Amino acid sequence: MTEDNSTELRIHTDSQERPFLSVVTPMFNEAEGIVEFLQELKVFLEDLGRTYEVLVVDDGSRDTSVERALSIHWRGCRVLALSKNCGHQIALEAGMSASRGTWVLTMDSDGQHPPECIQYMISAALDEDADVVYMRQPDRTNDSWAKRSAATMYYRIIRTITKVPIADSQADFRLIHRPVVEAVLKVPGDKVLRLLLPAIGYRSVTLEYSARDRIAGKGRFGAGWQFKMALLSILGFTSAPLRLVALSGLVISAGAAFWLLYVLVTYMQTRTVTGWSSVMAAVLTIGGLTLLSVSVVGEYLARVYDLLKAHPKYSARFVDGSANSGKDGQ
Ligand code: UDP
Ligand code: MG
């Protein structure tokens, strides 16, 4: 597959015109499998009969992944190289930001996300008039028991704490409409895409797929990565922990006030050991005021956090189909 043929020239586009589809695929040390993956992807994309571009986002690979990806000389495919290993989510963001397609499809480059699903994803989006097509893997049999259990726990906890209606076993394998891509890219800070999209609540369809084994090598996301994702998901989507601290500050300081009252009453009834009342009064007053201040600071911080989070508050569209994603009701 070293030369372009006329079909390919018709189908892919390297002009300034917007292609129908951009495929964004992050790659980190995938030298052994990347050629096979891209060749298979190419077959499916050319069968689609739509204009496309492929963006392979090299996430600072330390092997020959980039050379291998370029070795197939596919004019519809560009490699966007990040200067260092920034992580899968940032690679996805970089690719989405460089993409031009009306629809953006994100998929892994290790062969686990089957390219044959692409046509079903596009049909589902167009038939159901959806802005996002999520892909979920109902049975994660190719994951270890530990990874499956950690994932189940992650989704359960995150749904409870953040109240985002995220379905189990979401993959970073999805099709996103251009207006949604633009809205998501405007959100500042770390983005957990699998949570951000359902949090904003775009019109969506969820399809199921069966993940394949990697073409080569081993997955790199272990317990450390899952823990980091869980932390980012909580910190990025809810001020609930901050509000909990603020509330406990308020409750405990109210308790301290009552206790102080008790200390004063027992002091007046001279039922106390010398010095106890003054020590208790000092401890309770200072402790109570400190906790009260924490709860005030917590409440203000929660407001600042909500502003900085800057998630679009809604997604709406005119009934003729044009989208309008808003922030702060604008
Ligand atoms: N990946 C990446 N940066 C990283 C780690 C992984 O871009 O730091 C890419 C990797 O090449 C693959 C996708 O992200 O295309 C998913 O990674 P992996 O297969 O290791 O994760 P798993 O499938 O085990 O969740
Ligand atoms: Mg994988």
What does this structure look like?
The chain has 330 residues and is an alpha/beta fold. It has 2 domains: 11-150 and 167-222 and 313-329, Spore Coat Polysaccharide Biosynthesis Protein SpsA, Chain A; 240-309. 49% of the residues lie in helices and 15% in strands. The chain is built from 11 helices and 9 strands. It has helices at 6-11, 34-48, 65-70, 88-98, 117-128, 145-162, 178-185, 193-200, 223-237, 240-268, 276-309; strands at 21-27, 52-58, 77-81, 103-106, 132-136, 170-177, 204-208, 314-317, 323-326. Strands 3-2-1-4-6-5-7 form a 7-stranded mixed sheet, with helices on both faces. The protein has a two-stranded antiparallel sheet with strand order 8-9. The protein binds uridine-5'-diphosphate and magnesium ion (MG). The site of magnesium ion has 5 residues, from loops.
Defining traits:
alpha/beta, 2 domains, seven-stranded mixed beta sheet, 11 helices, disordered N terminus, binds uridine-5'-diphosphate, binds magnesium ion
Order of helices and strands: HEHEHEHEHEHEHHEHHHEE
Q: In CATH terms, what is the fold-level topology of the largest domain?
A: Spore Coat Polysaccharide Biosynthesis Protein SpsA, Chain A
Biggest β-sheet strands, sense, barrel: 7 strands, mixed
Straight-line distance between termini: 50 Å
In terms of structural class, how would the helical and strand content be classed? alpha/beta
Assembly of the depicted chains: single chain
Helix content: 40-55%
- The count of domains is 2
Low-confidence stretches: 1-10
Outline type: elongated
Roughly how many Å is the radius of gyration? 26 Å
CATH architecture of the largest domain: Alpha-Beta Complex
* CATH superfamily grouping of the largest domain: Spore Coat Polysaccharide Biosynthesis Protein SpsA, Chain A
Largest sheet strand order = 3-2-1-4-6-5-7
**Which molecules are bound besides the chains?**
uridine-5'-diphosphate, magnesium ion
Q: What is the residue-mean pLDDT, rounded to a whole number?
A: 87
As a percent range, the share of strand residues is: 5-15%
The first-level CATH class name of the largest domain: Alpha Beta
